[in-house]
Amino acid sequence: MAEKHKPAPMVDEVSYFEALEVAVRELCIEKGLFTADDHRRWTEYMHTLSPIPAARLVAKAWLDPEFKKLAVEDGVKASLEVGIDWINSMPTHFGTPSDYCSLRVMEDTPKLKHVVVCTLCSCYPRPILGQSPEWYRTPNYRRRIVRWPRQVLSEFGLQLPEDVEIRVVDSNQKSRFIVLPVRPEGTEGWTEDQLTEIVTRDCLIGVAVPKPGKTQNDIRPIARAANPYGH
Amino acid sequence: MSKSHHADMATGIGDPQCFKGKAGKAKFKVGDRVRVRDLQEVFYTRCQDYTRGALATVTEVVYESPPPEDEAWDNTDRSEWFYSVVFDMKELWPEYPDVYAKDTVETELPEFWLEKA
User: Fold this and answer.
1) What angle is formed at CA A25 by the lines to CA A21 and CA A26, rounded to 5 degrees?
2) Which of A79, A123, A171, A203 is catalytic?
3) Distance in angstroms (rounded) separating the CA atoms of residues A55 and B53
4) In tens digits, what is the pLDDT along chain A, a chain of 231 residues?
5) CATH number of A52-205
6) Which of A15, A50, A121, A154 is catalytic?
7) Is residue B12 part of a domain?
8) B16:A101 CB<8 A
């Protein structure tokens, strides 16, 4: 009876790079570089991550000028107030190997808009913002945003006046960046929870600005599987 | 050198925090005008090609660390000060439209990549 029912596959394909990762991981475990238990603990840590702490950091900064000052001067210390310890939250207790421990919070003004990229690879402030979206890692974004920011932001639906300086922040070293956007109009008297809701991941990268009522990132096109299951 | 020398030095302290105090005096300060040197790097660098030879302003003196050109080969004996520098878009790309001439790029560089402009 069981043979008649074939469950649908969970994914359309296992990519070349996913297969490579499993192979390298199993080799490392076989050769004693780390244990399967080390890997499990690391994976479990990564699964705790999300953009919410960064959104809450922005909401707190909007509500408290002293906290905003701390966030801009010492991002790692400010992160503690939203439950993120860049040094000790992760199993290493010295930060993550790819994210380090130097968060810099970039404050937008009405005349200055930041947007973050890593042109060299795709460095991203994972401990406070979660995993990066696929588009952030593509050469399409990484090569173009630093040379044609206005065109690329326009593709994201964001157009800014000429007298606003766009500052593309290229995270090429140990610092990781989030954007502290300008608090939008129409949010007077809002609670921290209400403000947190409108600071989406795209706002924290800098390709969107927060708006009352907008609590989701825009949907981006998904690349089709190259070798789909059943092919 | 032990395979865990980095963990031994950085556990509970953080990276780049573990290199604090090891670089000596910073050569540049906030507001300084600097130029990115056009050095011939061998194998590995994190100084972007598009910055070579360009003028910038130091906006922040950020932290001390071995430069990635050394750190990639596990040479962490020597640390330098790292600086956050801002370039005008028109300095990097002469064809950048004048109407948006206020736009900039900010990135971090270790001291050895910079010279006084």
Assistant:
1) 120
2) A123
3) 38
4) 556 788 877 888 888 888 999 999 999 999 999 999 999 999 999 999 999 999 999 999 999 999 999 999 999 999 999 999 999 999 999 999 899 999 999 999 999 999 999 999 999 999 999 999 999 999 999 999 999 999 999 999 999 999 999 999 999 999 999 999 999 999 999 999 999 999 999 999 999 999 999 999 999 887 788 888 776
5) 3.90.330.10
6) A121
7) no
8) yes
User: Which chain A residue is nearest to residue B91, measuring alpha carbons?
Assistant: A147
What's the CA gap between A194 and B50, in Å, rounded? 41
Q: Which residues contact A121 (CB under 8 A, 6 or more apart)?
A: none
Q: Which of A101, A149, A175 sits opposite B14 (nearest CB)?
A: A101
Q: Hey, where are the domains in chain A?
A: 52-205
For the record, the structure tokens of A109 come out as 């003004």
Determine the distance in angstroms separating the CA of A130 from the nearest CA of chain B, rounded to an integer: 19
> Strand pairing of A165-170 and B104-110?
parallel
Examine the predicted complex and report whether its ipTM is higher than 0.90: yes
- Taking the C-alpha atoms of residue A210 and residue A195, their distance in angstroms, rounded to an integer, is 9
Closest CA to A59 of A217, A195, A181: A195
Contacts of B88 (CB under 8 A, 6+ apart): B55, B101, B103, B104
Reported residue count of chain A is 231
Cross-strand pairs, B80: B65
Q: Where are the alpha helices (DSSP H) in A86-191?
A: 126-129, 134-137, 139-144, 149-155
Give me the number of domains chain B comprises: 1
Q: Give the CATH number of the domain where residue B39 resides.
A: 2.30.30.50
Interface residues of chain A, partner chain B, Cβ below 8 Å: 76, 86-88, 92-95, 100-102, 104, 119-120, 146-147, 149-150, 162-175
Q: What are phi and psi of B66, to 5 degrees?
A: -60, 140
SS3 at position A193: helix
The amino acid occupying position A126 is R
- Asked if the structure places residue B16 within a domain, the reply is no
- Dihedral of CA atoms A113, A117, A119, A123 in degrees, nearest 10, equals 150
